[in-house]
Design goal:
single chain, 503 residues, alpha/beta, Purple Acid Phosphatase, chain A, domain 2, 12 helices
Length: 503
């Protein structure tokens, strides 16, 4: 905190590139956190100590509309995050009848006179930075690009009112890899004012210029103007903890919101596939008492209600149901009061939009399937991207060497194994590695491994025990979860509960 914030790079090459996923150093360094999350996510729950409350968001504009900004899957390449931050801090202009693929301008022009004002608040829909949303990564890949964008807009005279807007967020799996510690520092309301230093003279951590943090939990309930509600639900892997479930179920029973926006880390509908009624996210909606029009046989949302299911995680834009995109006779399902939207274009890498299960057709899609297929193919068939994307090429090299060695050097797998044993110094004597030749064949010597003096088959037994130990370790991790579930069911049968996934 004693060092000044880094300056914006002078050219594009100075921005940090997107994270590499093909066994890169950053990914390998973060694997232990991913493993800890996988092993202990059901045991160590930071949400146990959270206290959620309703937050009222006031309307500042007087034009009869309320706008908010939504981003998800941010904090990857600095240039992409900077670009998205610049857009969400600005007013945008489109043509009078905008479509998903419409060209957006930062300035009003003759043919673009519909103004999309910057939102009254900014909501981050999960996976705030990659690979792990810890403090250092959030500062480098999320806070810095937002600060650079704010400073550039201010110098350009496009930020005249420096009043801070609310910043909200929910975590995704990459936020959980840091046990929500980075998420807490990024989104929780600081102990002092955003502009006020603490007793040690330090400003609040990870402050974003132009924004203020308001929430006290990883899930939020925002009361918006015009009787709208915005619920940000922290449903990790689609599952909801019982405290959060009670919070939202109580809200639903008390207010019975007719107009509702629900933000979740994972989408209800994506890649043209209906949600499964038994899936975690479907069970979560049912536990709270919400209707499930996203199911294949879920029916329509009740008359007099309007709902938007909003999420990221899948890095493209797609809208299912909702109003018809155009009058071209598209067979996609239409709904006047419900839509399920995937909006994961917050700056991370692109997920192909042409991947489609073909169970349900989208009303709107960006980028188009043709553009997506072309862009993805240009990247994955570029050998340089494979080489610079991490150490995955090293695995291929090792496999190639092993295959080449097995095909050209030894005449049998037994010979290769015995050669390795002799080279590795396993204490084998010349008598135990007595060379023999196959009768009548001109071939390299085949070594016959005699039983060692310390017991028949002891080395073979050691290998078996090593493999059995590894299998027992893996089986113990998997089976322990089954035992816990069985224990919980048994105790529920006796009239009390220690955990309950669906409240």
């Amino acid at each position: 905190m004693e060092e000044p914030f880094p300056q914006k790079p002078s050219d594009e090459r100075g921005f940090e590139k997107p994270v590499a996923w093909l066994l890169a150093r950053e990914l390998i360094a973060s694997l232990k956190w991913t493993v800890l999350y996988a092993l202990f996510k059901g045991k160590l729950d930071a949400r146990d100590w959270m206290q959620a409350a309703e937050i009222a968001v006031e309307r500042q504009m007087g034009d009869g509309a309320f706008w908010f900004d939504y981003l998800a899957d941010t904090g990857d390449g600095q240039k992409a995050t900077y670009s998205i931050a610049y857009l969400c801090m600005s007013d945008l202009w489109v043509e009078p009848s905008p479509q998903v693929s419409s060209t957006v301008s930062l300035d009003e022009t003759q043919d673009r006179r519909v103004r999309l004002p910057r939102g009254e608040f900014l909501f981050i829909g999960g996976d705030t930075s990659y690979h792990v949303a810890d403090y250092a990564t959030l500062a480098n890949r999320f806070q810095n690009p937002f600060r650079w964008a704010f400073d550039d807009l201010k110098r350009a005279g496009k930020i005249l009112d420096e009043a801070r807007r609310p910043l909200f967020g929910i975590p995704g799996n990459h936020d959980y890899y840091d046990a929500l510690d980075g998420f807490n520092r990024q989104f929780r309301r600081p102990s002092t004012d955003e502009d006020a230093p603490n007793h040690a003279g330090q400003p609040p951590l990870l402050a974003i210029p132009g924004f203020k943090r308001c929430q006290e939990a990883s899930f939020v309930a925002l009361k918006l103007p015009f009787d709208w509600w915005f619920w940000g639900m922290d449903i990790e892997d689609g599952e909801i903890d019982f405290r959060q479930c009670e919070f939202f179920r109580t809200l639903y029973e008390q207010h019975a919101p007719r107009k509702l926006i629900i933000a979740t880390p994972e989408p209800t509908t994506f890649l043209g596939k209906y949600a499964d009624a038994e899936a975690n996210i479907s069970q979560t909606f049912a536990a709270i008492g919400l209707e499930r029009p996203f199911l294949r046989d879920g029916g329509r949302l009740s008359e007099g209600k309007c709902r938007l299911d909003l999420s990221g995680n899948v890095h493209h834009y797609a809208r299912y149901w909702g109003p018809a995109a155009d009058a071209s006779g598209v067979s996609a399902p239409v709904a006047s009061n419900y839509a399920s939207v995937v909006a994961g274009l917050g700056g991370a890498f692109l997920h192909p939009s042409h991947t489609d299960v073909n169970e349900i057709e989208e009303q709107a899609l960006y980028p188009s399937k043709e553009a997506s297929r072309r862009a993805i193919a240009e990247e994955i068939f570029n050998p340089w991207n494979i080489w610079t994307g991490g150490y995955i090429w090293l695995l291929g090299f090792i496999i190639a060497v092993v295959v080449a060695f097995a095909a050209t050097i030894p005449s049998s797998s037994q010979e290769a194994i015995h050669d390795v044993l002799s080279w590795s110094g396993f204490g084998l004597t010349e008598q135990q590695l007595a060379p023999t030749r196959l009768a009548g064949l001109q071939s390299p010597p085949v070594y016959a491994l005699d039983r060692p003096a310390d017991g028949p088959g002891s080395r073979q037994l050691g290998g078996v025990l090593l493999a059995a130990s590894f299998a027992a370790l893996v089986g113990g991790v998997v089976y322990s979860k089954r035992l816990l579930i069985g224990l919980n069911k048994q105790k529920r049968g006796k009239g009390w509960t220690i955990t309950d996934q669906w409240c």
